[in-house]
Protein: Lipase member H
Amino acid sequence: MNNYERKVGRITGLDVMNMFFVYKNQLKLSNLIESSDATFTDIIHTNDGQIGLQGDYGQVDVYPDGGEHQNSCLQSGPLGNLIEFATGGCSHIIVARYWAESIDNDTMTACKADSYEDFKNANNSRCINEKATFGEYVSQSAFGKFYLDYPLTKAPTL
Structure:
């Protein structure tokens, strides 16, 4: 292996933006984040399919609150909730709060599941399958889709 074939050790995608990659196949863009871009790639999805890129692209893909609209962003009344569902802005940028929280709290646990429904049906207070520490301290031996419900106390201001 020469110096040009070395990979970085880890890439963490924070709700990777959708708008630049929607037409990947048509435009033949090669800068879509993929699990092979680093020795270990993990992605945190907080607005999956709206602003955030939909799909699993890491060795570990984590979906707080199901990964689409964050509960902390849906507490501002009917008009605020309508704006959130229309734009997804709060759910997209809240990923930075999750990341920061994971640095301060090395006990945030995500449970492996095939879907958010499976996670909820399995009683999210206990993992019946594999579990992994969420965020900064995720084990690099983990692999697959993980879910967690972790209440952030305050949504970011847009």
In short: The mean pLDDT is 81. The longest strand covers residues 8-14. The chain has one domain: 3-148.
